[in-house]
Amino acid sequence: MDANFLCVFQSRITNEKVKFVLVNSADQSLYQDRYNEFDVVVNTYFATKDEGWFTYTIYEQASPSNLIEANAGAIVETGLMFLSDGQDVTTTKYDNPTTFKVYDAT
């Protein structure tokens, strides 16, 4: 099945939901039988939302436009997301040298 995906995010603070559909034609995965890959523009869906934790549920469905969870198909993924404004995000890069010791057992 060339499924579309209903994405439902719910704020753990306000219980407000954000819903959108990722259509199959936008899937960028090279191996769609194994995994699906999409670009999601966060500001499109979360621009007015407060920073914080969101639970999410992803449903597969045939419809490219349905936003009603009861009309969607099976749940394919659930999880937790932290929405951040990105201002305080820092990355750490480690440049530790790799050294190998070889012992001659003869």
> Which residues sit in consecutive blocks of at least 5 with pLDDT less than 50?
none
Number of continuous helical runs: 1
Strand order of the largest sheet: 2-1-3-4
Proportion of residues in helical segments: under 10%
First CA to last CA: what distance?
A: 60 Å
Global shape: extended
Secondary structure category: mainly beta
Number of domains: 1
Q: What number is the mean pLDDT?
A: 90
The succession of helices and strands, N to C, reads EEHEE
Largest sheet: 4 strands, antiparallel
- The Cα radius of gyration reads 20 Å
Number of strands: 4
Strand fraction band? Answer: 25-35%
Description:
The model has no long low-confidence stretch (mean pLDDT 90). This protein has a four-stranded antiparallel sheet, with no helix packed on it. The protein has 106 residues and is mainly beta. It has one domain. The protein is built from one helix and four strands. The protein has one helix at residues 42-46; strands at residues 4-11, 17-22, 52-61, 75-83. The protein is 5% helix and 31% strand. The relative contact order is 0.24. The termini are far apart. The protein is extended.
Outline:
This protein has 106 residues and is mainly beta. It is built from one helix and four strands, in the order E-E-H-E-E. 5% of the residues lie in helices and 31% in strands.
